[in-house]
């Protein structure tokens, strides 16, 4: 792909960002929401049911509802949902502002287990009500701690239609900014009792800077099964794995192909599209979208599923790409019928007839009508197949188009493809017997041979599937990343870690990595064995931006306590199943003390936890809460926190937003007072049947004043230089 095409792929991600980052507020009130070309084009295509076009256009001009999704893979999801329903939604139902009753958030009918909600509340309304302001702060805090994602409703569809299982190998081809990637990770971790699912997610994006947005999204979920890479999706390299001692080509079980698009389905959110939209946008993008889709199905395993999606309603970007893909596959692909997969979702079936219009207003129904002067811009694959029998066999009606006025959403298109056999152009390169360096016969995988000796077919401009030129050396753009260095089983760093934490014999030492070849190791990370396999076998073939979850960090004073590495909260749920010592079982009241007091004395703990703490020496610890099924008033999910046992005190070493998350789960209402003043007596009395105790806490991660407490040095976790935030905790007695 040339430089211009790469730049176009970066620039045309506007729509994907808009639907992934659906947030609060309307804005853009002065922009005129009119585009006559848009209206005439879609009227002529007839995609909107008869008699509904005015409703369609009216919906397009309305602000998009804000939508949130509760992180589904964590066992805490039910607790968060309970908190939302009981503490916020119930009160909002009774709320009136300026004489107008506020509409409470509603669950998306088609999203499983009430894990997704939408609301029409704007920022202006939120600012007028202390209750709504608290609700907004709750959402912001839970989003930052990874327990809630703000994401447009239609953006949630592709991961659901992929039907992810924990063992699936998944590729997200155009992943940034990462909301759908987060969904994929959640589905892999459906069972939180399994720290390392067999599957993994490779999240790719062409834009180096956007890859770091992707890292930020993925980091919130603390998964050892995600890798972020930086490649052009239309030429993403074939990866290899070691399987049973043999080098094999990696094929993915599931692929998400959410391609760059014109974004006309995002008009409700991305207001600039109203004045920028022309039909030429789709004509410029069609070739890129098809090349990305072709590269996707090449890397899909036989029996696997690929979801192709856009936030465009234009058939040139939608059905035309699917039809071209099906036609070239010669039966290797078929469209899956997903009509029963999401009950409650309203959608329009795909079309099998469409026309093409230039920005000057010229219409073409068939390739034969296109003048030669236009044939570089307009391609045959943009039109429906002319063979009616072949067209009918494609079942394009199985594609799904979401119209904004049907369920108050953005516009969207999605199609589910199932791979029945290898792609025909891969079959045409038979296995070739070659001599190895030692003179032995060896068989070369056809796809490997194809890639090693020539560029991928999808990188050839025209014709699309002709034999390509020789492979060029991969060019890397953007920042140079630190190396990923795996430790050996006999690495000296494990000597004290093994004894201090009493790691179980099955602890996967080979999965531990660091980011430096030389000097002291500051942080240790863990990945799943499958990602380790990929990293070791593809270091020269792919540009890895980030992978692994942090499990230990070096503590400058730790060695005098028996171990130079303290536990990291990010990786505690991954690591804890292998730790057999330095665990303190705590109660709900213990956690409240630990999270609202910076360095409480050991005597502040209840008797059981106090007795355990007294038996431990100074250093890093695990604070573990085990739910009690006989007491449903308490959280019914396990909680694991990193802590530090000092000489006379103890502390929870947990980031600010995560502290607030756990406190809310324990029934403590947390909110930020912007004026730095305590709430009025009237606000305190407003809590029904509760006498509130106000406890002002300065939240800071500075070094504890108590003797023997943790010294962070200059590591990443030293947040003492951050501004102090004052919060109020209301705890009903």
Automatic annotation (TrEMBL):
UniProt xrefs under InterPro entries: MeTrfase_RsmB-F_NOP2_cat, MeTrfase_RsmB-F_NOP2_dom, Pre-PUA_NSUN2, PUA_NSUN2, RCMT, RCMT_NCL1, SAM-dependent_MTases_sf
Biased composition (Acidic residues): 700-710
Subcellular location as annotated: Nucleus; Secreted, Extracellular exosome
Pfam families, per the entry: Methyltr_RsmB-F (PF01189), Pre-PUA_NSUN2 (PF25376), PUA_NSUN2 (PF25378)
Transmembrane helix among keywords: no
GO CC term (a single one): extracellular region
Top-level lineage group: Eukaryota
Basic and acidic residues bias: start-end ranges: 674-699
Root EC class: transferase
UniProt-recorded Gene Ontology molecular function terms: tRNA (cytidine-5-)-methyltransferase activity; tRNA binding
Transmembrane segments: none
Catalytic activity: a cytidine in mRNA + S-adenosyl-L-methionine = a 5-methylcytidine in mRNA + S-adenosyl-L-homocysteine + H(+); cytidine(50) in tRNA + S-adenosyl-L-methionine = 5-methylcytidine(50) in tRNA + S-adenosyl-L-homocysteine + H(+); cytidine(48) in tRNA + S-adenosyl-L-methionine = 5-methylcytidine(48) in tRNA + S-adenosyl-L-homocysteine + H(+); cytidine(49) in tRNA + S-adenosyl-L-methionine = 5-methylcytidine(49) in tRNA + S-adenosyl-L-homocysteine + H(+)
Gene Ontology BP, a term: tRNA methylation
Family as reported in the entry's similarity comment: Belongs to the class I-like SAM-binding methyltransferase superfamily. RsmB/NOP family.
PANTHER family for this protein: NCL1 YEAST -RELATED NOL1/NOP2/FMU SUN DOMAIN-CONTAINING, RNA CYTOSINE-C(5)-METHYLTRANSFERASE NSUN2-RELATED
Name of the molecule in the record: tRNA (cytosine(34)-C(5))-methyltransferase
Organism: Scophthalmus maximus (Turbot)
């Amino acid at each position: 792909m040339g430089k211009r095409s790469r730049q176009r792929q970066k620039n045309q991600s506007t729509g994907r960002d808009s639907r992934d980052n659906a947030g609060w507020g309307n804005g853009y009130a002065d922009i005129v929401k009119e585009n006559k070309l848009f209206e005439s084009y879609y009227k002529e295509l007839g995609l909107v049911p008869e008699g509904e076009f005015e409703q369609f256009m009216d919906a397009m001009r309305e602000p998009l509802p804000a939508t949130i999704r509760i992180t589904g893979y964590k066992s805490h999801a039910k607790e968060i949902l309970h908190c939302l329903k009981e503490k916020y939604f119930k009160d909002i139902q009774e709320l009136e502002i300026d004489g107008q009753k506020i509409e409470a958030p509603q669950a998306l009918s088609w999203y499983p287990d009430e894990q997704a909600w939408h609301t029409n509340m704007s920022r202006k309304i939120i600012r007028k009500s202390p209750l709504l302001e608290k609700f907004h702060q709750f959402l912001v805090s839970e989003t930052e701690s990874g327990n809630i994602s703000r994401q447009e409703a239609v953006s949630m569809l592709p991961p659901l239609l992929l039907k992810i299982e924990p063992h699936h190998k998944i590729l997200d081809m155009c992943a940034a900014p990462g909301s759908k990637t987060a969904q994929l990770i959640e589905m892999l971790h459906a069972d939180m009792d399994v720290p390392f699912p067999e599957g993994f997610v490779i999240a790719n994006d062409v834009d180096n800077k956007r890859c770091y947005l992707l890292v930020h999204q993925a980091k919130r979920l603390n998964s050892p099964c995600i890798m972020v890479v930086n490649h052009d999706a239309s030429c993403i390299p074939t990866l290899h794995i070691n399987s049973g001692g043999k080098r094999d080509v990696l094929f993915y079980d599931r692929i998400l192909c959410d391609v760059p698009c014109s974004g006309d389905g995002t008009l409700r959110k991305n207001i600039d599209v109203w004045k920028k939209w022309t039909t030429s946008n789709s004509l410029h993008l069609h070739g890129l979208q098809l090349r990305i889709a072709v590269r996707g199905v090449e890397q899909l395993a036989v029996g696997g599923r690929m979801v192709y999606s856009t936030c465009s309603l234009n058939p040139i970007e939608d059905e035309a790409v699917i039809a071209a893909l099906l036609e070239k596959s010669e039966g290797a692909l078929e469209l899956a019928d997903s009509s029963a997969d999401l009950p409650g979702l309203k959608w329009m079936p795909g079309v099998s007839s469409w026309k093409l219009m230039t920005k000057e207003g010229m219409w073409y129904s068939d390739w034969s009508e296109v003048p030669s002067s236009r044939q570089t811009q307009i391609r045959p694959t943009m039109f429906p197949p002319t063979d009616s029998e072949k067209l009918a066999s494609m079942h394009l009606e199985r594609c799904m188009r979401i119209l904004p006025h049907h369920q108050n959403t953005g516009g969207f298109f999605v199609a589910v493809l199932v791979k029945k056999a290898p792609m025909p152009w891969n079959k045409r390169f038979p296995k070739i017997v070659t001599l190895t360096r030692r003179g032995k016969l060896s068989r070369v995988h056809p796809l490997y041979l194809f890639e090693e000796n020539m560029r991928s077919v999808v990188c050839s401009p025209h014709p699309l599937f002709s034999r390509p030129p020789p492979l060029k050396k991969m060019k890397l753009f953007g920042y140079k990343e630190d190396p990923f260095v795996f430790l050996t089983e006999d690495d000296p760093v494990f000597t004290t870690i093994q004894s201090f934490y009493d790691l179980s014999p099955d602890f996967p030492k080979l999965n531990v990595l660091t980011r430096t070849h030389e000097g002291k190791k500051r942080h240790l990370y863990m990945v799943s064995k499958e990602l380790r396999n990929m990293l070791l076998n593809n270091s020269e073939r792919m540009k890895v931006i980030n992978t692994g979850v942090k499990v230990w960090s070096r503590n400058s004073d730790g060695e005098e306590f028996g171990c130079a590495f303290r536990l990291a909260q990010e990786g505690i749920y991954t690591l804890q199943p292998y730790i057999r010592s330095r665990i303190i079982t705590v109660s709900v009241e213990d956690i409240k003390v630990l999270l609202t007091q910076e360095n409480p004395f050991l005597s502040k703990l209840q008797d059981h936890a106090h007795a355990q703490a007294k038996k431990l020496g100074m250093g890093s610890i695990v604070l573990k809460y085990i739910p009690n099924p006989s007491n449903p008033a308490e959280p019914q999910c396990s909680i694991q926190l990193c802590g530090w046992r000092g000489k006379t005190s103890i502390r929870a070493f947990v980031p600010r937003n995560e502290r607030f998350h756990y406190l809310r789960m324990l029934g403590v209402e947390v909110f930020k007072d912007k004026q730095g003043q305590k709430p009025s007596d009237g606000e305190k009395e407003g809590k029904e049947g509760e006498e509130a105790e106000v406890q002002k806490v300065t939240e800071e991660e500075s070094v504890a004043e108590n003797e023997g407490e943790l010294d962070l040095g200059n590591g990443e976790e030293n947040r003492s230089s951050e501004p102090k935030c004052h919060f109020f905790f209301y705890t009903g007695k």
